[in-house]
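Can't attach files on this board, so I'm pasting raw text. These are the components:
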Amino acid sequence: MPMTGSRTRWTGKLVALSAAALLLSPAALAQEATPTGAGAEGEALVRAMDPSALPEGFEVPGSATHITNYGVHEWYQNLTAGEAARAEEYEIEFNQVDANLDLQASLAAVQEVAPQVDVINFTPVNEEASGPTITALAEEVGKPIICESSPTDGCTTLVSIDDYAAGFKVGVWAGEYARDNFGGTANALDVGLPALTTTVARSTGFAEGLQSVLPEARIVASVDGQGLKDTAVQVSNDALTANPDINIIFGINDDSALGGLQAFESQGGDTSQLLVVGFGCEGVACKDALMAGGPYKVSAAMFPEYQGRLLIDAGVAAFNDVELPAHIVAPTAAVTADNLGDYYTQGADGYEPNFEAISQISVEGEE
Amino acid sequence: MGADSIRTLDVGSPAGRSTRRPLAGLATWLFRTQEGVLLLVLLALCVVLSRLSPVFASERNVFVLLSQISLTMITAVGMTLLIVGREVDLSVGSMQAFVGVVAMQTLNATSNLFAGLAVAILAGVVVGLVNAGLTLGLRINSFIVTLAMLTILRGLAYTFTDAAVQNAHNLEAFRAIGIGFIAHIPGVGRIPWPVVITAVVFVAFALLLTRTTIGRYVYAVGGNPRAAELSGVSVWGVKTFCFVVTGVLAAVSAFILIARLNSGQNNAGFGFELQVIGAVLLGGASLAGGQGTLVGTLLAVLLLGTLNNGIILLGIDSSWQLAVNGLIILVAVLLDARRRRAVGQE
Amino acid sequence: MAAIHPDRSAAAPSAGGGGGIRRRLLPAVRHEEIALLGLFLLVAAFFAVAVPSARSGGTYLDLLRDAAPNLIAAIGVTLLLLAGEFDLSVGSMLAFTGVVTVSTFNATDSMWLGIVAGLLTGPLIGAINGYLVTVQGMNSLMTTLGMLFALRGLVYVWTNQTPVVDENGFSVFTGFYRGEIARIPLPGIIALVLIALAWLFATRTEFGRNIYAIGGNRTAARVSGIRVQRNTFLLFVLSGTMAAIAGVLVASQTGTGYFDAGVQGFELIVIASIVLGGVSLSGGEGNLLSAMLGVLILGMVAKGLRLMGAHTTQQLVVTGIVMLLAVFLHGVRQRMLVESRRRNRA
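---
Top answer:
Structure tokens for the assembled complex are below.
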């Protein structure tokens, strides 16, 4: 990683003044779902950012590094691939350091990286436990820290989906499906992950979305699949035995949902009377399962490649001292076999995201 | 209801009789051995659970439970041999990911079940030989060797695939290994394949350990390596055998795992090594070597498996799972310590 | 040579015949620190060449801060290992202590009460471990493995797997971890002071010297009049206390009681570092300073790989290989020493 810390911040600040004036131009404001309040213009700017046509006076940061919490997960592989691609468009040097779920390694890494780069992207292993370090670091280095996934004290802004809203969307879809196909019976198994606030919000959103359509719907069992397929299969097996009436399985990520489905099949259940609802759909497994036409019918897609792009765009804006809101919501959608093609094009190398369509998804009312 | 829970235990009892110590009647066996204590605790747990949950003793749940523990049990068989032989293998957790990924890639490339199985077993043999070679050849403590292998194999599993190797071959026989049933047996029900495989592995190695010269050598090498060496036993050979058996059985369990998951996950098997070793030690084996039986291991695996099954059946918050597991280990080890003192053992 | 180290040789007579060998190995024990220091410098030099940012002195001060919890916890675990006992519960202690500390902050609005309560968890859990092992005669590996699950589970149940946030926002507490005196980080200073005290304790007190005798040969130690039970009990209390100090430091770093602190195999990393420092898992062999160097070497490898921007897969594989290499070299050096001594005698 090169030493780019010597870049003077004074020019950046002068530029910011002119940039602020520019921000008020109508073009930058003409975005849908513009939130009100502090940073609204900044958010609009981020969403409309174009590396080949930067606002006048904007400086491009020399380098950005993302400290991920769990880099070997497909979500982070696709997210950082999106970041790297976007960084290349700007000609920003992009690197990744991974904590592999170790809180102390994560906190050490962010402190090691901060002095050497212009923009820090950070995914906390745990947001509460990272707060003091990030707050102190933000004061110390005075550089943009763009957080991903969970709101952390000290971050310049957060780029992440609204987990509750995304869960709610697929909950509603599941409710309507159960109303039309299961005669309104909805007994759901929640393959959750209670250790993370984001995944708890997904489960809550799903349950409330489901019940908004079918007030009689029940979550008959909630189990901790730890977000891992092997654990998900184990705990779902037990829960399915205890509750043979389960006809909907919700998983907080693709592995949890697919693990629940595997457990159901291993008990010889009738999959025509089952609906599996996933979350994330970052990987090939989910997309293939949706297209296969089995019980896995819907997933709350989080579009990691697009979110990676937003992270870099937010970093560039923050580097130019654009005021940003506390949270820039990344889009989500309930994807099914019918609409997956709108957002992804299946090619020889797998599924290519369609950024144009994804950027059109409304995030109104989400936070 | 009780009959079903007894049936759960029947798997262990034939071999249990075979390892019964000469002086012990059934009562002494129950109260004076680790196996006996575990059996009592397990029975008590089964009685409580069948009272509390109507589905606990159902055929469906018993077989779900037995399928669940099959992976732990198969690996624990190898681990028992290894621990009796005074070595340990922590790498079995990452083996679940590494072997699973490699085997699934082979299955996809060849669409041949036996090719996949052969590669899995070969990988198990290689890892076992590497562990043995580093431990015995370079004389490094096996705890460190296999801890290093635990991290290295996890790293390799991550390198070989971005996330999971999906099933692209759709072999029916492969599916059957994970979630299929062997023909319906009257009065018993449809027995899942993993349970059958586990039973075969268990019986084969129980016989090996109690009825053959190799078995006696394993105990001799673990109990007193120097004496074993002097009496002409190849300590090197016996320990290598134990490492390879552990590697192969861990690979077998990894193969069943990918069949159950229908994919080779690079994040599979986290903490599996502690689960397996914990069960083996709970079953009465000692890391000091020379002690332990497969019946004890089986009872310990059953006990821990039943506990986890029960927690979910009763709808208890999963937060309790760890705490209760820890308490059960503490209680079992405490009972064992008391028994040893009562018997006058150190 | 023995005359230069009367402190160590005092342990020898009680260990019977082994004492002679140990006395002859004293220079080896002495050289262990130097060899490990050399290894540390080698690792540091490698990264200094490979990564420009690893060249600044700040990197090493940061290392001292990052490694402080591991160093402190390793003190207690090392002394226990020297006495032939395990403590696997230190990883869960990090979480338990942190949760107790911050919960007490919130309940009493007093920072000092919270810190005291947090620190008291150490002697409490240590005493429970010590009681179970010494009075009840339970195996320490199994006991502390049970405690590892039970404590973590207790923390999960208690916190419902949400971090306990410091409602008062004690900035003195959170500032402590980042504080420094003359550029030396406060956690590092605490670690160094505790290491110095523990080193004096292990080498200059009778209790400390007896540790080697207990770990070397328990029966011989008992026969020679050492109060094995009492001393072992106190070492468990000490280990718990050290883990609690580490836990309070992590709570200070994170400003929360984090239920998953140390869950990524903290206890295994600590034990691996200690073994890397030449401490034998079967007790009686090794020394504290080498163990501490072992912690720093693994810490430096992790830090250097992060500075290089190495991917997780590479980090895992390299860490595994470094562990193997270090322990292998330790064995080679020991054998060479034994060999040269034998030749000298001839």
